[in-house]
């Protein structure tokens, strides 16, 4: 059974339903994908790193042979290890913002029914000296960060091949690097019509392995995976080609309406 890193990070229920029911994609969605493909085709010609290298990893899980495939947009071997860059074409990139912080607890506040509210102290007067505002830089979207982490696993499994193919032995020796274990980090570069927004991604191998097992278990299970309930992922339902089938089997609306009830 083969899966791409992108498929693993999508909706498992959608993946299964697309295998069982006929569907069609909206032309507007095809335009978005074609536009992104054009950007990636141009970026693949970048010569200062390893661009668009398809990596594979074959392993056993739940008694089945699984092939994981991924194509990082750009891999660089820096003096402190592998660095991964993934490009995303979007009209709505993440942005930095100022957030209210409770000076007593050092916790970010939220807008509650009674105004600005600290999770510990409760509602506070917006003009109170107990509140300060701190700039939060733009953050990579969770699924994009997870994708970079899955790419890190693929690089780890293909490190020896990459070093040999691109003649990187001298860089490895000079900087005392461990080919399969030295990582410098990663980033998502959001490409919009106005600007390029770069967001750092933290690499966590243990968390990535846990995510990989969780997603594969759902995809390989004999039962249909449940509907999405992560608020950050509900947007997927608005673009889902099998949403009607999903809602029919679920017996109720899915996506944002499920959170509004």
Please describe what this structure looks like.
This protein is an alpha+beta fold and 261 residues long. The chain contains eight helices and 14 strands. It has helices at 5-9, 12-20, 27-43, 142-165, 169-174, 205-220, 243-250, 256-260; strands spanning 2-4, 50-51, 55-61, 64-70, 74-78, 81-89, 97-102, 107-108, 110-112, 115-118, 122-123, 131-136, 183-191, 196-201. The protein has a five-stranded mixed beta sheet. Strands 1-4-3 form a three-stranded mixed beta sheet. Helix 4 (142-165) crosses helix 6. The relative contact order is 0.18.
List the helices and strands and how they pair.
Blueprint: E1 2-4, H1 5-9, H2 12-20, H3 27-43, E2 50-51, E3 55-61, E4 64-70, E5 74-78, E6 81-89, E7 97-102, E8 107-108, E9 110-112, E10 115-118, E11 122-123, E12 131-136, H4 142-165, H5 169-174, E13 183-191, E14 196-201, H6 205-220, H7 243-250, H8 256-260
Parallel strand pairs: 1-4, 6-13
Antiparallel strand pairs: 2-5, 3-4, 5-6, 7-8, 7-12, 9-10, 10-11, 13-14
Helix pairs in contact: 4-6
Q: What is shown here, in short?
A:
This protein is an alpha+beta fold. 34% of the residues lie in helices and 27% in strands.
Q: What's the β-strand tally?
A: 14
Largest sheet strand order? 2-5-6-13-14
Helix share, percent: 25-40%
* Unreliable spans: none
Strand content: 25-35%
Largest sheet: 5 strands, mixed
- The radius of gyration computed from the alpha-carbon positions, rounded to a whole number of angstroms, is 21 Å
Termini distance? 38 Å
**Count of helical segments?**
8
Basic shape = globular
Category from helices, strands and their pairing? alpha+beta
Sequence of secondary-structure elements: EHHHEEEEEEEEEEEHHEEHHH
What do the pLDDT scores average to?
A: 88
């Amino acid at each position: 059974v083969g899966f791409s890193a992108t498929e693993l990070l999508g909706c498992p229920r959608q993946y299964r339903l697309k295998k069982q029911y006929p569907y069609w994609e909206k032309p507007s969605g095809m335009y978005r994908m074609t536009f992104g493909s054009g950007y990636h085709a141009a970026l693949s010609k970048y010569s200062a790193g390893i661009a668009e290298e398809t990596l594979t990893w074959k392993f056993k899980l739940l008694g089945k042979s699984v092939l994981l495939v991924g194509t990082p947009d750009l891999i660089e071997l820096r003096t402190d290890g592998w660095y991964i860059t993934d490009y995303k074409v979007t009209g709505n990139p993440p942005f930095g913002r100022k957030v209210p912080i409770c000076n007593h607890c050092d916790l970010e506040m939220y807008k509650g029914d009674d105004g600005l509210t600290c999770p510990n102290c409760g509602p506070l007067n917006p003009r109170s000296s107990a509140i300060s505002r701190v700039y939060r830089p733009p953050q990579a979207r969770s699924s994009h960060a997870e994708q970079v982490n899955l790419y890190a696993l693929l690089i780890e499994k293909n490190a020896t091949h990459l070093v040999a193919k691109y003649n990187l032995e001298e860089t490895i020796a000079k900087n005392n690097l461990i080919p399969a274990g030295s990582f410098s980090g990663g980033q998502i570069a959001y490409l919009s019509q106005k600007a390029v927004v770069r967001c750092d991604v933290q690499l966590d191998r243990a968390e990535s392995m846990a995510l990989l097992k969780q997603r594969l278990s759902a995809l390989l299970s004999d039962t249909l995976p449940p509907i999405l309930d992560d608020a950050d992922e509900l947007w997927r339902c608005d673009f889902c080609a099998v949403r009607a089938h999903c809602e029919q089997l679920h017996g109720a609306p899915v996506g944002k309406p499920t959170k509004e009830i």
